[in-house]
From TrEMBL:
Residues of the Bacterial sugar transferase domain: 272-455
Listed PANTHER family: COLANIC BIOSYNTHESIS UDP-GLUCOSE LIPID CARRIER TRANSFERASE, UNDECAPRENYL-PHOSPHATE N-ACETYLGALACTOSAMINYL 1-PHOSPHATE TRANSFERASE-RELATED
InterPro entries noted in UniProt: Bact_transf, EPS_sugar_tfrase, Undecaprenyl-P_gluc_Ptfrase
Family: Belongs to the bacterial sugar transferase family.
The protein, known as: Putative colanic acid biosysnthesis UDP-glucose lipid carrier transferase
Pfam family, any one: CoA_binding_3
Any one GO CC term of the record: membrane
Keyword Transmembrane: yes
Locations listed in the record: Membrane
Keyword Cell division recorded: no
Membrane protein topology class: Multi-pass membrane protein
Amino acid sequence: MNRYRHYYGFNRVLLLILDITLIAFAFKLSNMLRYGSFEFEYQYNIFFVLFGLVWWIVSGFTNFIVRVDSILPIDRRLGNLINVFLMHALILASCIVVFNLEQLSRLLLLYTYLSTAFLIGLSRLVLHMADRYFTDSDMAHTRYVIVGSGPAAVSLQQTLSNNDEIGTKFMGFFDDEVDPSSPHQVLGSIEDMKDYCLQHSIDEVYYAKPIIDSEQIEELTEFANDNFIYLRLVPDFSAIVKKEVNMYFYHNIPMLSVRNEPLELASNRIVKRIFDVVFSLAVILLIFPILFPIIALLIKLESKGPVFFKQLRPGKKNRLFVCYKFRTMRVNNNTELQATKNDPRITRFGAFMRKTSLDELPQFFNVLLGDMSVVGPRPNLVSQLDQYSKVISKYKTRHFVTPGITGYAQVSGYRGETKEVHLMEKRVEYDVMYMANWSLMMDMKIIFLTVWNMIKGEKNAY
């Protein structure tokens, strides 16, 4: 919440200091276990600085460093911790190669990672328990009530209780019109709330009813101002909006967006485009020249026809573009027919390329041309656009953004043939989730999982 923005920054600094202190202790402990001394050699002093710097970057990008109160279940929190350390290890390994630090003891590195993971994981558990204890206790410095008892009020109370990072205490609902089916007890009418606020030193009042009674709101505003209570209006739009919305201000005019998409912001689109250009150039200049002659030769040896396969695919806002791939099938006239398991059109080497996603290597040229992104919803066939847009409500929504070489649905197990509509529905669901939760770090995670799937192979890739 915005009123606690200063707290988040302070919290981030304190937790970073705590993490670096624990990392330093882990280094000392690991050095004692490995060499029998707490004193570092010169190269390990450099390594400690590098280790801490990479930790600061990775934990900051993933927002891991500030989440001590998370409502996520323990398995998700453990998964987040593992992801942070895997990403940290990947970047650190690259730094070791770049800075020529291969002489470092592998055993010392193992001890350091194990002790760091234990200490930081333990610190997050202790801080989480302390935060919960403080929030649930009478020491909570902010007491609040909610005006309203409908679904919007109940949802607000659950959100505030689960997500507020400062100790707060919910005191009760107040409403003139009580829903008898509501499982939550209403302490009294809105008029009763005024006396209650004065008797129990209430700090905040949240108004979670439809904003139609301006006199009532004006009256509550005056009461709150006179008694040093913060009144916060949380409009109930449930009558007109049936889904999650994003609210923002254009100058002084409040506006609601019925879709939440980080890539609506021009700054995010610029960041993503810069990453796409840099990443695709690296692949084209470093990997493509090595693999292209080998792949081209094997394609030609196995079947007659061109090396590249070109096909129109629907892109952003359904605009068609020419998508490039290495040819994996024998030349045929059924290019709009989706590949199936044991498809006779697919060559043996083509099957290998599909299994390892090597056939999509030329699509990095599509990225440079701006038709595709490295990560995004996969561009389906034109025939699939016509078919599924009629039966899947959110199918066209995925075309609000530029399609990608790889995507969230693909690394989540939804790849290959879509014989049934529900399989395509799951792909669309993951595509929409990606659009609503995009971040550069999410793109990097999807790329990492894509490379990992290429190495191990995927059973649905055919």
